[in-house]
Structures are given as structure tokens and as C-alpha cells.
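Fold this complex.
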Amino acid sequence: MSALLEAHGLNLRFGAVPALEDVSIEVHPGEVVAIVGESGSGKTTLLRVLSGMMRPDSGEVRYRDPDGAVHVIHAMGEAALRQLHRTDWGFVHQNPRDGLRMRVSAGGNIGERLMATGARHYGRIRTEATEWLRRVEIDPERIDGMPALFSGGMQQRLQIARTLVTRPRLVFMDEPTGGLDVSVQARLLDLIRALVADLGIAVVIVTHDIAAARLLAHRLLVMRRGQVVEQGLTDRVLDDPQHEYTQLLVASVLAA
Amino acid sequence: MTALGYNFGYLDENTKRMIRRALLKAVAIPGHQVPFGAREMPLPYGWGTGGIAVTASVIGTGDRLKVIDQGADDTTNAVSIRRFFAKVAGVATTESTAEATIIQTRHRIPETRLREGQILVYQVPMPEPLFRLEPRVAETRRMHALADYGLMHVKLYEDIARHGHVAISYNYPVLVGGRYLMSPSPIPAFDNPKMDRMPALQLFGAGREKRIYAVPPYTSVRSLDFEDHPFQPVRADAPCALCGSRESYLDEVLTDDQGGRMFVCSDTDYCNTRQTHREAAE
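Structure:
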């Protein structure tokens, strides 16, 4: 298997409601895959299943670690999965409050993953935190500031810094630009695109924003009622949508 | 002479057996908190019920008990608990650290080095070292199970960022046997190094929180720190006003309302012994 992450035949029902129906997905190293669809189409559920936070009724998710060994995510122990989550993987939440520690300074937030993986040198953690604040365009002077005093866009950028500091190979993003105003969204998308290209990270991003998907993603999955109705290269899907739902989605984008 | 109407050591034998089982488990997994059924004690929670339950379960007729409160043998809490065991177990009591076989303590470790065969019983108000950082108990359990202690280091990082040093002067978190994060109970950070590879058995009882944990003899106990900000125990920069010790942990005592103060040993037995020796020498 050359893919970084590979899922086959995922099924999950919430009572009578099918959340995932026979979903398969592959993510290759350095590739950005966007999952788009309307609310309730199962895209966040898919993200949670892929990242091991939720167990599917059937189907398998497999991950290839840096040594080439393949792990079945839902058969891993909790300790191993957590280890994966704080080293090789990252998760960026829609609401930065879910991903940040609001009572810990910006520097502490960035340093947490480093310290969780064994960094025990205060000076080096501090240098790394300063460097990452600069990279996400937050004034390094604010290293000791509390995230609660940051604007929404800064909080989201801080969350990204905190996630990327251990240089993960695969990052899951759940609507990272949701809840931000348009100009801030644009800057954040730019930043994410630059960092992802720079570090060669593979990203699975969930969004309902077609424009964001076009900007970031190499490949696109369109979901509706728990099924993947169409997938392919982003430009192909958006310029020549085959499925009627995708056509509706593309037609619904407001042209400025 | 044991008081009539009480079982030896106050607690009934079944309760003692239950606590001993918890103690054995605690010794087998150094630093791990073992739940136990705390019984009602003839004093309120927060006064040492956990420590008393542990002492009552390990004490035997041949034991000699010492009880200290903040290092002192002569404070209310220490005197009451010592008298309690003299009454309900009929055991000999002492103020001398060297002569005692069991030492129950609140917030100090004696200055005199403990030896093999002695048992140090700590009274613990809050056994969970992570409770200020993670409010969910289920989550702290998971963190212990997975040895996921990055959060504790985040706290130390925050202290250094804000104060320039780790601003924890008591209840300084330790890692036991390289595995479990443990609260040493509110002893001063000054006492932490004494726990490392101590020849005596250390038992911890938290009555209200219903947890027991232990550090077996000669187990490594490391205070958390950073490579470039190593752990530094704090001691008032003065000799003891009574015995002149420059090594012991000091209490600051205000002597008037004009700013007068003196520093004296917190460990009364250590201080008295030194004073006696000095007088004998003169």
C-alpha cells in the first residue's frame, strides 16, 4: 500500500439514519483531500471515523507509519492511538476553543505537544514556540498572552501552530475556516496552503465551502446522505460535475 | 492499656484487611492510586482520617508510634492522634524519629534520615496531582493509564514563563519509579529529595478522596523539571535561631508587630536533639 491512509467499505448508522454507506477513501503522502457536502451529509462523521475517534459498524481504516508498517486504526490500543494523535497526526477543530487550552498561554499551547512527546528543555521549547508564532503570523511578543484575549482568526492560527509543531504527516481539519469573517478566512486559507505545501503534510479537510476546497485541495469527495456521490481531482469535479448533486453544489456558489 | 469496647487499633478486622489489600496493591504499583472504603473516624475529614486508617491497619502491639504535624510533635493534631492510638491500640509512643517504627505525618518528612523497617504514613488531602489542570476524574485516570503527563509539564512551563522559575513551593509533583505521576502530599518541595530511594516504606492515605498509594523502599522519586531549569528546593536563607542548623527546613515565626521575626526548625525532634547535644558539649 502506498497510500498514507486507506479506508474501505465504511458503514455506520445512527439508529435508522445511515451516516456512512460503503465509503472508501485513500490519502497519499502530501496530498490534500477535501470532503464537501451539506450539513448532515456525514462528512464530519467520516473525519471522526478516519481519525479513530469513532468506530464504524463495518469497514476498515488503515494507516502506514513512517517505518512502512501498516496499522488498522480501530484495532489499535488506546495508548498507541493517542501516541499517533500527538506525534504523526494532528486534528484542527472548527472551534479553536475545542483544540486550545484557553487558560494556558500561547507558548504553552504550542509547547504542549512537544512536552507530551518528551521535550524537556524550556529554552528550546520557547524558541520553537516563538518560531511557530512567527510562521502563523502572530506577533511573537504575545507568546505569554492568553488565547482568550486573541481574536477568532488568531485563535485558529494558534491552533494550527499547536498542531503542526510536531510536524505531523497527516492532519485532519474540521471546517477550519468556519465561524470566521470572510477576509480572515482568506488569510487563513492562504496560510494553511503555504504551510501544507512547505511541510509536505497530507490533509483531510472537511468543509462546506467550495471555494476553500478549490483553493486548498488536490482531490475532492462529494458526500450526500452518507454516500460519496462523486470524487476526483478538484478542478475536474468543479469544472465538470457529473452527479446532479455536485452540479447543484457548484451552481450554488455565489460569484462575487 | 487498650480502651475497652474498641477493637485493637479502632478499626474492625475486616476493614483493616480491606485496607491492607489496598496497601499491598499500592506497594506493587508504586505511585498508583488505589481506591479503598474510608470508614467514619472520630475526627473530621481533613484532619488526617486517611493517614489514621492506614496507621490503624499496619500498626501492631510491638510498634512505637510518632506523629508529627508540620514537623512538630507538640501541636494539637499530632498530640491528639498520638493519644488516640495510645488509647485504642495501647502502643508505645515517642517523639524521637530514630526510635519510632511508624511515623504518621502531616506535611513534612523528618530531618533525621529514615532507615529500613520504618514506615512513614502521610496524611493526604488531595491525591490527584492533575486535579487543578484536568477537572474530569475519568480523564485523569486515562492520563495515568497512558502515562500522558505532558499537561503537568505545561503547568511548569507556564510557571517559568510567568515567574522565571517553577512557583510550586509545596506539593511539588513527582514521577515515581519512572512511571506514575504522584502528589507527594503538601510537603515542602524541600523534602522531595528525601523521598528518592528512601530506605523506609512510604504509605499515603487520603480519607475524603478514598485513595491509598505507596512508595516502596529504595524506589526512585523524581521531581519534575526542565533540563535548563532543574528542580531547586527552597529553604529560608538563615540558620535556626534555636539550634543553629543550616540544613533543616525552617518555619518563620513572627515575634511582635514591629516586623520582628525568627526562623526555627520545623522539625521539633531534630531541633531539640541538636540543642541537647550542644548543651551537653558545653
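The first strand of chain A starts at residue 5 and ends at 14.
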